[in-house]
Amino acid sequence: MRTRTVRLRPGVQVLTRGADEVQVGLDPRWAVRVDGLDPDEVRLWCGVGPGTDLDALARGAGARAARVRQTVADLAAAGLTRPDPEPGTTVHGPASADADAWSLLTADGDGERQVLARSRAVVGVVGLGATGMAVATHLATAGVGTLLLDDDSPVGSVDVAGGAHRWADVGVPRATAARRVLQDAAPGVRVDVDAAPDVVVVVEHDAADPARATLLMAHGLAHLSVVVRAADTTVGPFVRPGVDPCLHCLDLHRADVDAAWPTVLARLTAGGPDTGAVRRRGGEVGVVAGASAALAAAQVLVHVDGSVPSLTGATVQIALPDVVGRVRDWSAHPDCGCSRLPGPPAPSGP
């Protein structure tokens, strides 16, 4: 079996801190100090880069070889080194940055495996305005293999906010325009194939549609709600049917403090000229759309990677003017009954 070369994990830098000390890594979650070095050792370690073979470094250190080997062992124990990835597992394109980052976050340093496993994921995105389009683009460039797109309304000039859609696509159905954008951003992504989604992101205006939420629950589909309003967007909750508080739970909680909420909700979400509905299809502020889409995509990636998203039982309001997220926790409502549903199968993570 071929011995794989050991190097620092991607993104780990070595910086001098003084005459006898270096720092390995910048992020306080894993950075360490190495002290008690002589000047030659400081120079030796400050010359280490992402391509340095650490075993060869020790072999070439002469009288200091034993000390260098011990430092390499200490860095390995601190999770700052890893063997080269297996042949054929290199991640190319924009997802390579995800692989590098996950090489720092996973115990074994195999960020490539983590990202390549996303190619098996199928994610639906409903609503392809500026926010939904940005969610889809984030997922595609992070390595998600298949996206199911749902929105045939035409691209409007307001949808160009944040670079989500192109001016040349104004008037084209959003899903059609989205396919072009995604194929440019991530040529390997599969779009609208015949596949069942692992999770669905639903981007709606003003309020989450109870009928759609009920349908997702009935099919046992994990889903993430994103609700866009004129000056803010609410991301969450992330719902795993039978496990987490659902959108109906949130509406029941709202009705507990505002008896008129069911009436308002019905007028916001019902269709047809005789329902009193006031469905809005306005623009989406670019900075709010960008921040909301990044958060939503990150929650989906946590799920497809096999972990539990932080927005199960929580929402984040991202509002103008500061676009700083404000978290609100939610519990299952005793009158809902969603917790008695069978839970979904575990996601097929790496």
Report the order of strands and helices.
EEEEHHHEHHEHEHEEHEEHHHEE
Which structural class do you get from the secondary structure elements? alpha/beta
Strand order of the largest sheet: 8-7-6-9-10-11-12-13
State the distance separating the first and last CA atoms.
24 Å
How much of the sequence lies in strands comes to: 15-25%
What characteristic shape results from the CA principal axes?
Answer: elongated
- Runs in which pLDDT lies below 50 for 5 or more consecutive residues are 272-279
GO molecular function: ubiquitin-like modifier activating enzyme activity
Protein name: THIF-type NAD/FAD binding fold domain-containing protein
Organism: Cellulomonas oligotrophica
Pfam family, one: ThiF
